[in-house]
Every structure is written in structure tokens, then in C-alpha cells.
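Reopening this one. Same input as before:
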Amino acid sequence: MSNHEVKKGFSRRDFLKSSAVGAVGLAAMGVLTACDSSAPAGAPAPEGNGAPVAASEGERIFGMCSTGDWLGKAPQIEAAAIKEVIEKDVVVVGGGHSGLLAALGAVDEGASVAVIETQPWSSFVDLKGDGTNRSGWYGEDIGHINSKWLIGRGFGPYNTGEIAYEFVKRTMGRCDPDLIRKYVQNSGPMLDRMMEIYASMGDRRIQEDSAVVVKKELHGKDDVTVDYSDMTQYPLSVVHHQHDEDQVYPMQVGDYKTWPCNIQFYGHQGNNIEYFNKYICYYAQEHGATWYFEHTGVVLVQDAGGHVTGVIAEDLNSPGTYKQFNARQGVVMAAGDFKGNPEMCWALLNEYMEWAERSGQTVADWQYTSTRSGTGHKMMCWAGGIMETTPRGCMGKKSGPSGPWGAGPFLQLNKKGRRFHNEAGTATASGIMFRQPQGLASFVTDKKVFQTLFKGGLDHGAPNFGWKEMADAMLEGFNSIEVGNPEGTQISGVAVAESLAYMKGTVYAANTLDELADFLGYTGDAKKTFLAEVAHYNELCRSAEGDIDYGKQKNLMIPVDEAPFYGGKSELNSKPSLGLVTLAGVVADEEFRVARAGNKEDPIKGLYTCGNCLGNRYGLEYVTPMAGNSLGMAMTHGWLAGKNAAQGI
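Same output, byte for byte:
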């Protein structure tokens, strides 16, 4: 039976009716290519253990408003193609951030582990010795709460319930509060465990990382040799915080709270997290985990009862050759997102697809270079799981005009010169930007720029004064801004502390608002409106009622009335970009067990998930109360899922 067919003897009405009663009725009409422990590899699983089929030919996958058959059928793997069978307690599919911690969690419970990873080891570590960025452990900072390291730096402890609710509020309830709670409450202990392992590797760290060459293209200066042997020390690790050392947290900006809760591995170049993560990998390998690099998971193995008992993986160095990894306790799916699969993105990221299509884009415009193609999501759906409901999101947050100063609460104006929202509402900004006239948008401030800048929250992309070298470079650049130069002045940014070489922005400075409007590109009626809107904004700032237009909080209503005047600009459009990763995943319960057909009362035994394979975390977009929580959540959930799999929870 194909993925588009309805089982003989059932009408479409019968199919929909039976699926409504729960997992049993839904699964009874599923199709899955998996294998029984006593059957040939790739043999169909017995009825009752499969994935939902499409509602009708060429229409969509059951239970999702997706277009086309992005799921397809599970591949048939002949027994003769399997050249090796490997027995482990736990099998982890994916060796990125969540998979690394899943392996650690499992070995900490005494389990033997196989990690199946598509990329080579050279994607994760600097084998060339030239300091260039790697793609394996993607990202730089670990968002977490109440670790010993954070508290030792003076940040925390904080109320975990308050932070968890802030996450839920920002998703507008489009998340699973228990998954968020598990992250917030366990992320500190997770980082403590990583720090414990890292501290135990002192001699090896000195041997490998005390003389790392960083190329001038990354550093912005000459080639330098850097000691990376202790990434826990400043400036190799920093905390994203505001300028004032005495700032009380959480900061509340635009009715949203933010906290300084991360460890950011920056210093001289981006992506320095390698020099921390690799020691966790070494430890896991020394305590029962084996990495199978350049292997990719293909299909899950299920027994006659539908329980997941293993994974079939292809050896990428020998295409068409497979290994079967049998898991005595469980399989953890940590295979990442599906940004590298444009058809899957187009089908599942519904709001983004609508904006894209209306702006003239096609699925071909979403071709990205990425090894993360959604195979893990498909494998789980073939085994009986299902994707979270809409809105299914990605990290393609659409930011407004901010220049080098990040997403601060500066006055913002659109193409027509009009103010259009509460600039302090960073959690609502992205959707509003899509709905503005396409073209010019600007931010405007004046001599009091730092009064506003120092009041910005700590959302991702907000002002960050954790790395003093970067902040000093921004301040030095600010003092060099040439007033009256229509070309503007490029200065170092203070939004995301990655690398002084490329985090920059252009600022325009003028003696009058009229002149600044010219520099920013406003002409005719738009210029008249620009000047009138600034004047109106100043009136609101001085009034007793405050911002009666959009509700910006009173302490952020700072008039733009003292020369010199500063501004920056950007181009808004309704063409979405998927950003770093997709965020949509498969439904699981609070123990990270994949839910059969989305029913958390019926978890698929032996199948766990975490990271960007896991659904119900973010809703439509990455709008969060601290930077770095994508990695932090992936790692924490991975650590817990690995422990659960090892214990058979």
C-alpha cells in the first residue's frame, strides 16, 4: 500500500473517523518500512505500528496542513545490503549538540552507546590547525540557568518558574510547558556536568589547545597564536549582560523579561565552542560511546509490537552498504533540523511559505547548503510519530533596523516615515516587520543614545556588553562617527559577540533632524512625515500619559531632541529566510519519548528525541528570554533523553 492510499475496506470517511479515536485507529491504517528482529531488514512492520497515510492522492499528509507528500515511504533495505550488525544499549542518531549530550547522559548511566553521525570528525574539530570555523557543532553559546559557573560570575540564582513561564508566554502557548520546564530546571546541572568533565581534561587541553593559530581574516588583525586551553575563563567565555554591572535582573522591556543566562564561547573568533565540546566527546568515547562518523541513519527497526529496537544506517564511504545498530534500551533521535530539505520546509513552514510565495519566491529559493535534511523527522514519522501542529517555525527571525547597537528600544520609522509599533516589544517585532511597506526602515536617536542603549533587554541580538573588547571597540567607533557625512560611518557592533572582523554596522550623524532624514533616504512626503513623527514622538515622551499610540513603557520614552542626531537604516521585505535552523519537530512527551500519532499517552517504546528533531518548543519563531537557548535546550534535552533511554524510562 502506498503512502497515499487508504487501506482496502475503508472509505475516506471511515479513515478520518477511525483516526479521531486515537492512536490505535490511526495506526491501523499506517505504512512503515522497518524490520522485525526475526524478519529480513526492511520488511514491513505488522499493521498497527505504522505512520499516518495521506488523506488522499496528491493532497497532504494526514493531520497536517502541509502540501504534497514530503514524507514519502520508508526505504526498503535488503538483508544482503547489511554488512554488519552492531549491538549497543543506546543508539544516538546525530552527533551535534543534542546528540553529544545524549551520548554523555547515556554513558553516565552505564550504557554502551553508538553515535551515528553524517559528517566527518574534521567538521567538528580543527584538524588543519588554522583556526577556521567548523560546521559540526553549529553555534557559539549555551543558554542555561543557575549553573555554578554562572552564579560564580554573579548571575543568579534566578527563579526557574518565572523563566519557564516567560518562554511559554513568548510562544503564545504554542509549546509544551513541561518540555520548557525540563530545560530550565536541568540546564544548570547539565552545564555543571560538562564543566566537571572539562576540568578533568587539563593536561590534554594544554597539549591540544594552548597554541591555536587564528587567521587574520577571522580576527581582523594579523595572524595570532592564542591559548584556548581554558575556555571557562574570560575573555574566551563571557555572559551576555547589560552595560551596568549593578543591573537587577530580570530586565523587563516591552512587557517581556530577559536574563543573563548563558556561557558564550567567543574571544577571537566565532564558533569556539569546539574547544569545549570536544572534551565531552573524548570523555564519552572513553566511557562506552563509539562514534560512527560518515554514517547516516536511514530507517528505524521495529519489532512485532511496534517497539523501536534499532537503526539501519548507510556507510557514506561505501554507498549502498548498510549497518544495523540494535539498541537494547532505546534509540535517541538527535539528527538536527530540516533546513537542507527545501520541499519539506515549503510544506511544513506554512506561514513562511505563504510570505515567500506572495513575494515571488518558489521552493527553489529555499535551497540551502546543509547536511540536515529532515531524515530524522521522517524516520520517526514512519515509525508512527507525527509532526507538531502549526505554527511550525524556524530561526528566520526578521529584525528591524538596528545597526551596530542591536535590537534596542530606539524609535523606528518605516518607508513612509511613520512610526509603526512599540519598539521595546522585541518578541513581537518580527511579524510586524513582515507587515510593513517593503523598502526603507530606520532607527533614530540623538545625543542621549546610550540612555536608550543601556535600557535594552537581553533577547537574542540585543545589546551585549559581556565582552569588554567588543564593547570598547564599539565605543571607540562611536567617538569616530563623522557628523555631517552623508555616507555614514561604519563601526563595530555590540549586538552579538562573535568577531570584531565582521560584526559591524553603519551609523549616520547629523546636526539637524532634517539633515538626518536626507542621509537616511527620506524625500518628499516621506521626509515631511518623518519629521512630524519624530516631533509627535517627542510630545508623547514628555506627556504625562506616555505612549498612547503603541504603549512603550514610560522609562523608555526618551525624546529625540538634542543634537547631534544619529540613525541607521535597513531594507524591509516580505521574503522570509529560514535563518540558521528550522525549529519544528515531532511530538514527544515530557520524558522525550516520541508520541504515537501525537498521543502522549501512547509513547513509542524505545524511541526518544531531542534537539531540533523535538517539537513543541518555540512555536512560530525564535523569540526567547536569553541568548543561546537553542543550543542550551538541545543539550539539556539531549542529556535527559540519553539518561532516559539508558534507563528504559
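So the earlier flakiness isn't reproducible anymore. For the record, The chain has a mean pLDDT of 88.
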